[in-house]
Amino acid sequence: MIQCIGEKRLRGFQIGIYLLGLVTIILGGIGFGIWGTHISWKIGPVPIKWILLAVALITFGVMSYFDRNLPGKNYRSSIIWLECIVEAFTLACIFGNSIISFWDIDNMTESIVFILITAVIMLCLFAARIIVARTNREEYEMQKNADKHETEQ
After folding, report:
1. What average pLDDT does the segment 49-63 reach?
2. 3-state secondary structure 4-70
3. pTM for the full predicted model
4. Distance between CA 149 and CA 53 in Å, rounded?
5. Closest by alpha carbon to 17, among 52, 57, 68, 74?
6. 26: buried, middle or exposed (CB in 10 Å: 19+, 13-18, 0-12)?
7. What's the whole-number mean pLDDT along residues 107-120?
8. Among 11, 45, 79, 134, fewest CB within 10 Å belongs to which?
9. How far from chain centre, in Å, is Cα 72?
């Protein structure tokens, strides 16, 4: 199946899946961000926050479906630079408000502690992504070699 689709197209599918994931985080973050506010934007009788959360859930469902059903998952998620870029954007979306509010911290000790905690979290998540990408690449290569030996026999 991978040969029929092609490895470049699989990368494109993976990028599309990751973009859907980022859209989910952004829409969900905006929806939850206006949850407790007095913003009363409505489209008809439905508040915007419900629409944003519904679209986020639908987008998450589509992303999950594609991720589960497209072939070559080990290959698609084995590109280290892509995994690191996705992790950086995901962290920026999730921790965006905290990073922006960081500039309002007057105490230097709190600023240093915040920077250290953020750096440790980022390093751990980047390391986990890199390890998973390398493992997926090795599994893909082993599967590819096994398939090649089966077709030769």
Report:
1. 85
2. HHCHHHHHHHHHHHHHHHHHHHHHHHHHHHCCCCCCCCEECCEEHHHHHHHHHHHHHHHHHHHHHHC
3. 0.57
4. 48
5. 68
6. middle
7. 77
8. 45
9. 18
